Amino acid sequence: MAYQTINPYTNETIKTYDFSTPADIEKALTLGYGLYKKWRDGPVDERAKILHKIADLFRQHEDELAKTAVNDMGKLIGEAKGEVELCAMIADYYADHGADLLKPTPITTRATGEAQIEKHSTGVILAVEPWNFPYYQVMRVFAPNFIVGNPMVLKGPSNTPGSSDAFGKIVTEAGAPEGSFTNLFVNYDQVGTIIADPRVQGVALTGSERGGRAVAKAAGENLKKNTMELGGMDAFIVLDDADIDQVADIAWRARLYNAGQVCTSSKRFIVADNLYDQFLTTLKAHFAAVTPGDPMDPKTTFAPMNSKRAKDKLQDQIDRAVKAGAKVYYGNEKVDLPGQFIQPTILTDISKDNPAYSEEMFGPVAQVYKVSSEQEAVDLANDSDFGLGGIIFSGDPDRGARVASKVETGMMFVNNFMTSLPEQPFGGVKKSGYGRELSQLGMMAFVNEELIVKAQKPDLSNPAGGLAVV
Ligand code: NAP
């Protein structure tokens, strides 16, 4: 597919970008690998300074970066600015804490001498990223790996090339050495070529199950470490003692933020029967109150979807769900605007054999289920191939946390909106992928945790009874 910005509100093709050439790829890998060799054993101070500068530049250029993202994929301008600020926070976090997080960890061992685990870079990392947060997704991989000393090449999404390009320009403007970050406009075959290259030692993908399978397969064939941040069918559980006013205030946001195109959007609302009717009434009121329109206009509160393709796919999913017996409680009417809008929609009565029960709907469609016990809520939440995030509301936060622990997922938030912050690990289980990004856990994704055992002199007494020579 061509790398093209088509504004999903005006439907105007703004710019088409040329594909990278084999020479561009070779240059990126040569420069990146050279930097890896140089950085591997050196201090991180210089890179931390550059990362702070990158954070500063994200803040300074907030308006134009936000506009670029809006043109690329149609998110609300206010949400785009929030994304830019989050990128700056992530860059600052790794600049401030990177050196500490990379300190060797001493370990106690029966072997003679002192032992520690050192943390070294491993090589060039390929990041394959989606369009829904065109800066944040990239920063989640770039910032920690830049501090670790792993240069990065990016295969960004074909529909948000303006944002990928802008990210690269900020890194350059901050004074990062050439090869630290290279944005490439490559096709799927070239992704395979990059993964196979021995200078590349890791692959991070965020995207769909389809993209994840293809890239994980190529990584597996080449024995390259990889992390997969894939889709979700996150549950939003409302227990019978929840404060419905609090729930109402968060539930619609948890579904409609970024026009519902968030991996951790609440896609399945699982509501205790005593609160079910009230929940539906309030969710409908909030869905009906949004203002669709130009995402550049700060008064607009509901954005178009990122592309015609995404809109058509979601409409087809709604149609199939209804055909299979789901009821439209609210929405599913045409929005009389030129952009790629799907009206916020609420579906109920979704049976287990309905395709909607198990398919991720990546847009503003809420599925609402009624349950009659805490256990039924947990069972329904866990009856999914996915396990990324989730939200739970209870009048007793401790009860909420206890139930949250029973949900098979990577992240749960009790009595609050789900947030992503640099110090919190992000990632899931089951078909939502493996590995974590952000926090200390994410930073270690492509680190060689190298064991160094230091003795004063050889000792063959082998007191531990282990193998002396392996
Ligand atoms: P996608 O189609 O898988 O695309 C993601 C990236 O993978 C894009 O750069 C895409 O390039 C590339 N790609 C896809 N197939 C490929 C292949 N066979 N070989 C090489 N590269 C390939 O996903 P999407 O539809 O853009 O993103 C939405 C999905 O991402 C949703 O399922 C969402 O839940 C998930 N997501 C997960 C997280 C998380 O952290 N877990 C965060 C955000 C989104 P092209 O654009 O050129 O196709």
From TrEMBL:
One Pfam family cited in the UniProt record for this chain: Aldedh
Signal peptide segment: none
Name assigned to this protein: Succinate-semialdehyde dehydrogenase
Keyword field: NADP, Oxidoreductase
Limits of the Aldehyde dehydrogenase domain: 3-448
Gene Ontology MF, one: succinate-semialdehyde dehydrogenase (NAD+) activity
Domain of life: Bacteria
Catalytic residues as annotated in Swiss-Prot or TrEMBL: E229
Family named by the database record: Belongs to the aldehyde dehydrogenase family.
The organism of origin for this protein: Oenococcus kitaharae DSM 17330
InterPro entries: Ald_DH/histidinol_DH (IPR016161), Ald_DH_C (IPR016163), Ald_DH_CS_GLU (IPR029510), Ald_DH_N (IPR016162), Aldehyde_DH_dom (IPR015590), ALDH_GabD1-like (IPR044148), GABD/Sad-like (IPR047110)
